[in-house]
Specification:
single chain; 363 residues; mainly beta; Immunoglobulin-like; Beta-galactosidase, Chain A, domain 5; 2 domains; five-stranded antiparallel sheet; 27 strands
């Protein structure tokens, strides 16, 4: 079987793609370019039907270009490096890409909320800060909300609520990505459950300096409705960048509409927002991509010169979101890590890969 990737109007580089195939789950599959070079691929059962989902990374296709691959019924090469997951006694999941530490998922019940820290970017530079003195509750890469049925799950002050890890629904390593799927309960300061949450991270094995994390968040109400209030103290996804990257230290904040700096990006809507700056004499950056399926797309952004970048459509729209009993609210994001600023890191191109993936044809 052959599959053809058609790039359409956009350059395709470090672009994850997936295709549904009518193969029985468990059948060994490998992927080759027509010139004979093997391409790492990964499969899993199709959750929406029969067959499998085959995933791989597309590279080096120019606009209006194409590339054809051959699917072969044989196991992939064992020499390809993987994205690996390892749990430690400290209640961390260590994520390594090609044998090098990328991040750790922190989920101890001793902490107020789970988060990713550290996040290691291009040139082995750490991109994020964890618990800085000016905002001790800022936790590298995390999500939180300060008004959930009037409970505070944003701050970590006395009287605040918690997000409590329950279990992992799935931990999967692979040649193309690792999947970390966690289940949490949001509880108030008396330990009473407010809602249940699922968060799924897909961490990709890219060939270059860039890194991608796809994130799916599901907030689910129980027998009672849940109201997420219009507070500034919220981020359906948030990042606190490393101290040397902040706007105060000469770092750059940029968004999809061309906004530059805090004044032009804070409280503004945008399809993506990027924060870049110098870490150990090299410029690196991190962007969050919004998804068209998200509530209030394109979202509002709470982004500050001191280092915060958070998606927050609650405060800036002035609207609450009501999750009815047994219903859910879903958010989809892509975190895109890159060398250089937004232009050098091809953030716009990366965003278009996310919301307008290439066309895939089966031949």
């Amino acid at each position: 079987m052959k599959i053809k990737i058609l790039s359409g109007k956009h350059k395709r580089e470090s672009c994850p793609v997936s295709i549904a195939l009518d193969f029985p789950p468990g059948k060994a599959l490998s992927l080759f370019e027509l010139k004979g070079r093997e391409v790492p691929c990964q499969q899993e059962s199709n959750p929406r039907g029969k067959g499998v989902i085959l995933s791989f990374i597309v590279n080096n296709i120019i606009p209006a270009g194409e590339k054809t691959y051959q699917i072969v019924s044989s196991p992939p090469s064992s020499s390809f490096p993987q994205v690996t997951l390892k749990e430690s006694p400290k209640k961390e999941i260590e994520v390594k890409i090609k044998g090098k530490l990328f991040t750790k998922y922190q989920f101890s019940k001793e902490i107020k909320k789970p988060y990713l820290y550290p996040i290691v970017g291009p040139f082995s530079r750490p991109l994020t800060d964890n618990g800085p003195s000016d905002h001790i509750h800022h936790r590298s890469l995390w999500l939180a909300h300060g008004e959930v049925n009037r409970a505070d799950l944003w701050s970590e002050e006395k009287g605040s609520g918690r997000m409590v890890h329950q279990k992992f629904k799935e931990l999967k390593e692979g040649l193309v990505y690792a999947k970390l799927w966690a289940l949490n309960n949001w509880v108030d300061n008396k330990g009473r459950k407010i809602l249940s949450e699922e968060r799924c991270f897909k961490i990709y094995n890219l060939p270059l300096l860039k890194k991608i994390i796809d994130i799916e968040i599901i907030l689910r109400a129980g027998d009672k409705k849940v109201i997420l209030g219009p507070t500034k103290e919220a981020g359906s996804l948030a990042v606190r960048v490393a101290p040397s990257m902040t706007g105060k230290e000469g770092g750059k904040i940029e968004n999809s509409y061309g906004g530059r700096g805090e004044k032009e990006t804070w409280g503004k809507r945008a399809h993506w927002c990027d924060y870049s700056g110098i870490v150990d004499e090299r410029e690196v950056g991190i962007a969050i991509f919004d998804h068209p399926q998200n509530w209030y797309y394109p979202s509002f952004w709470h982004v500050r010169d001191y280092g915060l970048m958070a998606v927050n459509s609650f405060y800036f729209s002035g609207e609450s979101y009501k999750i009815l009993p047994k219903q859910e609210l879903k958010f989809l994001y892509r975190v895109y890590i890159h060398p250089g600023g937004a232009k050098e890191g091809e953030v716009q191109e990366g965003y278009l890969n996310y919301i307008h993936p290439p066309l895939i044809k089966i031949e």
